[in-house]
Fold each of these.
Amino acid sequence: MIDVMVAGIGQTPVGEHWDISLHTLATKAILQAGRDAGGLKPDAMYIGNYLASVVSHQSNLGALLAEHAGLTGIEAYTIEAADASGAAAFRNGYMAVASGYVDTAVVVGVEKYTDLVGPKSDSTLAQATDYDYEAVPGLTPAAQAGMLMQRYLYDYGIEKEVLAGFPILAHANAVHNPNAMYHKPITAEAYRKSPMVCSPLNTLDMAPYADGAAAVVLTRRDLLCGEDCGPTIKISGSSVVIDTLALHDRHDMLAFRAAGISLDRACRKAGILPGEVDFLELSDNFSIYAVLALESGGFANRGEGWKLALDGDLNLNGRMPVCTMGGLKGRGHPIGASGVYQIVEAVQQLRGQAGRNQIPNPKRALVQSLGGPASTAITHVLERID
Amino acid sequence: MIDVMVAGIGQTPVGEHWDISLHTLATKAILQAGRDAGGLKPDAMYIGNYLASVVSHQSNLGALLAEHAGLTGIEAYTIEAADASGAAAFRNGYMAVASGYVDTAVVVGVEKYTDLVGPKSDSTLAQATDYDYEAVPGLTPAAQAGMLMQRYLYDYGIEKEVLAGFPILAHANAVHNPNAMYHKPITAEAYRKSPMVCSPLNTLDMAPYADGAAAVVLTRRDLLCGEDCGPTIKISGSSVVIDTLALHDRHDMLAFRAAGISLDRACRKAGILPGEVDFLELSDNFSIYAVLALESGGFANRGEGWKLALDGDLNLNGRMPVCTMGGLKGRGHPIGASGVYQIVEAVQQLRGQAGRNQIPNPKRALVQSLGGPASTAITHVLERID
């Protein structure tokens, strides 16, 4: 197996991009990553996208984006795993380069979501659940997260206010991320007053669905452009694990088993223990997801994950910083692109390019993306090797 | 790189499967392929699908199908490249096993198309074209193929009746394929009288969009179940090549450049010349596609591909049999699944399991799938190694 390195990164701001098309959005990120990689020309492109066929009536993004990025002749196709689509595309790029079949791959996550309005947006998002048994009776991802949250509060006898720590942290970290959707910190008071979505889940428990594109260029070590391109970042662990799609098919729905197994496998591959990373990029699309992911990963005991956000352990200067550039909640959640944003942000930290959000000299990052309630869990370990 | 072998194959009949769901359809093929592989348990599943999010309101098929096939805990996600989705998923499974990250992968192509009725079906199929510049002004894939056909007839000064050879051949080969949609041969007379779709393209120039699922288990040689599982089939070449998505961006729209380059690269990888294969499985979703693919692959001169079907060269007992189990036209075209059906049929031939369609002792197959008018071209070389 060939070692796989990050050669370049690119991203657009996350937001409501009504004025530009899907392919323009993606192309901006692809070209930026290409420049950052010193002009290295990819021979493959893997695209993480969730909704283009429904929202933009556009499939076959491989051909569309390769053409617009001036890369016809390469290999390209789309990869989908709901909210984890971008992470799955990254996994794919990693395997392609590691296999030796591809020298340099660009992985791009892109989503245009906000063109969708009205009731259609709920039913469209519900495609990530089991349509026959969950979406048809009316379950959306938010309703599903509300049920998980209710069960969690009930099982451990706690009040919902204790989860406020997660959105507060995310918004605080987003303030100085120029690509984040929100630049305003929020308070516990705001969380308490936040309008209800699916009891007990409120607006501030949910990451905003948004538009955006992020890209990463992956290559072999000998093709890297040298010291000018900054520190060398290696992908040292990678794992995809599937749990049941439907929540009702799980013996213990608060376990997020796939998230735990995927984290464990990625760390084993990297030859490290989960505690040996310097920060975590987690899927906090719902506050309760962040809590359950931390517990499944062994960072807290079952029923105690919520304490981490209150104790300051997860802050930029804490013991184990999470969502260092704002996470899905603060940066915004361009669904199929979020997994690539997470990787890009981890690389920013490892390179020392995170600006006012920089954590001191991090060597190793753990990045986890969830598709649905950890129905798909994808984890990567990134390492700076100087 | 690790050698990748076909351990098992499975398929459902192609047709209108209104009575069973997407996941049941896929699971039938997956389980059949698993049994055929001697019960070898996959650790990854790659799903080729084009329309589930639009037709069945279902994304995240990785989790859905892994669960229904009793395979939670494995890696799984969806791959999309329009009509070539199944072939892209196969390419992906091939790379995953070749890289050593995955021991055994099951690749499944699945499509439920016929639940879609009325004008929505045309606009949905048009997603494979460039939406902004082709679909919006009204161009469907059939209209696109009609334009290509018109240009071909005009440039080479021939009558459309000469293309009849392709659907006649496909239907003749489908008669004895139990999984084919059609079991009736057609005549030149029927072709002449066939209703017009997009002049000069008529109904019999088009493969019928349909439902179906096909699966292939891929593994390393040392994990094969032994002689009981029949002859050993190796993937000896693989290539994906992208052309522009929009036809108007090509200098020569009759060239099908990506198809030619992809075939060339796959053959080089396999260390053979295209003429050294014993048969071809081509994308004949439109008669003109088959003609242009044969020309781009060097099997005929430009403007002369149509002659091959008239001369009998492409018949089961001809010099270079094509679409040996009926092709997309005769077997039916379950869009995102077709690429996997083509592979399954090639394996049937190489194993000597093609029944009354068996060609004598074939050693090597070339399988090519096109997404759109060769916007995406994917080619594989399969070889029997005894």
Amino acid sequence: MKLNIALLAGDGIGPEVVNEAVKVSDAIAKKFNHEISWTPALTGACAIDAVGVPYPDETHDICMKADAVLFGAIGHPKYDNDPSAPVRPEQGLLLMRKKLGLFANVRPTFTFPSLIDNSPLKRERIEGTDLVFLRELTGGIYFGEKGRKDGGETAFDNCVYTRAEVQRLAKKGFELAMTRSKKLCCVDKANVLETSRLWRETVQAMEKDYPEVTVSYEFVDAVAMRLVQWPNSYDVLITENLFGDILTDEASVISGSMGLMPSASVGEHTSLYEPIHGSYPQATGLNIANPLATVLSAAMMFEDAFGLKAEAEAIRAVVNKSLEQGVVTEDLVANGAKSYSTSEVGDWLVANL
Amino acid sequence: MKLNIALLAGDGIGPEVVNEAVKVSDAIAKKFNHEISWTPALTGACAIDAVGVPYPDETHDICMKADAVLFGAIGHPKYDNDPSAPVRPEQGLLLMRKKLGLFANVRPTFTFPSLIDNSPLKRERIEGTDLVFLRELTGGIYFGEKGRKDGGETAFDNCVYTRAEVQRLAKKGFELAMTRSKKLCCVDKANVLETSRLWRETVQAMEKDYPEVTVSYEFVDAVAMRLVQWPNSYDVLITENLFGDILTDEASVISGSMGLMPSASVGEHTSLYEPIHGSYPQATGLNIANPLATVLSAAMMFEDAFGLKAEAEAIRAVVNKSLEQGVVTEDLVANGAKSYSTSEVGDWLVANL
Ligand SMILES: CC(C)[C@H](C(=O)O)[C@@H](O)C(=O)O
Ligand SMILES: CC(C)[C@H](C(=O)O)[C@@H](O)C(=O)O
């Protein structure tokens, strides 16, 4: 099979971790007789530096022509202290999501037995956790009308959802639940927000099409609590953009394996795969960043974008092996123990595939 | 001193826990030579049942005339499955906040040494945690225009803030930080939302008036993570209404002492004190609910509404004693150990003041 993949390495440690995922993907392709063509493109702070905008049209064209996008991370500290600066890396991210129609952000949180003691939660709370958030990514308050009135003294952000947007996301949620334990949780704030009431009534109306799926409806504040108390009581959760932003990040730290969590953003035109960790500027160029989340994002890409399940499983298996054998970067080793560099971990994965 | 207090017991276990707080408050008043006049009033589901609305005008009048309000909890399961029902207990809560101008919700999260092992977090993560959220309570997306368009197919909720609203809340935050460790964290989403940019620029402009306070600005998703990872790295946090709803609930479960957490809603006309736990319908009438959060809310009331610090400290001391000696309700005892009823705990507190 010919796999045509856009490669958006981005900023900070992005290029380093993406590099290892490319090595592993190429090795898998060779083993299973596929041919990958990678097309690199600029996004984020590096794109601002090079061409003045964080998501250039050329990058967009490359993504539109690709079968899938592998993404590193974006962001640079020089933009951190002024969130109202006219051009910022995050704007590129939002523009990319909107223009590529990446409406469903798939964010699994699961545990690795060998890493469970890294969790801030007690073992008995976190053991067995295996949940997936589907966060709506192209609507809501992120993209509604926003601005100032009264000479700048009043600010507003409008949150808007259409029934069709909710249906599109919820459909993916029901379908995903059918492949798992058939439990779906719709997270909203329907006791206060009209958009949440639209979410809830839309999902309620879809229940009859998926009679095997048990749906629960929970308020976002209650979910923020239960994620810490009993994370393993959840399976698939669907929610709107802003709630998803907050809850997926909360969920990511409970496992103790945040540095290993992959994600996908599923779109109308193409889908994008990226580690959930950020650009980690302090580590840039030091060859110490953990590449496993990006490698596991590539595994998601093989499985979901190309239907290549055996290839994905082979990648996951070798990642597990590296964890078991302690061939990991310094963030995953207890004090004093031997650690490996970013590229050494990548090399080891390739050699042990 | 004469203390004129409105008593809004509400629904579920509200009346039972409020009853014990009244007993303890009366005993303290006697000891310190104050005279409390309690004026009961209806709110919540019980008000809907009695007079058809969740926050009757008569209740509002009583609150307006009072020096402080002691509140139990509201909510009843018969309203749980239909968040768009025309009359709901929560509407009373929102109306009460708005009409009483309760603009600052003060939500401490702290640990009790004897309860630390109840936390879902590991001991070393939670030990020493002592933080306070100030949540803006009468603005934002809760109270902006909301509705439907396109024949019901599109829903919207507008989030609005004025500079004056932000200043009012932030001022309380700076003042509170001055009485504590002089660290203030402003939680926003200024990389996406215009209202958050207004929050951030307003707080930034106030920094010069409080040169001793160190202010940090963090995105809401990052705070949702750090609350689980390093809760004791925070001191005072200020944030808008919806972020506060989610984050204060998240924070409440990390301590392991959720059933003990008090809160205050500070207003223009009066202030309201309530336990953060809800109406816990399953326990209604069983005399098993934990009254300590309400008792500690009464302590906050003595200190903040009336400036009676010694009285507040006396209440906190006897609560600590009950915890140390294990005179607690069943939610706080390990399996098998002896527990006490709601009223027995209250009686013990009164006897040991
Ligand atoms: C950088 C920011 C705009 C972005 C978001 O809020 O969506 C990030 O937090 C994320 O979750 O991908
Ligand atoms: C019941 C609900 C409207 C309320 C809120 O969202 O403010 C509650 O969750 C709270 O935090 O007091």
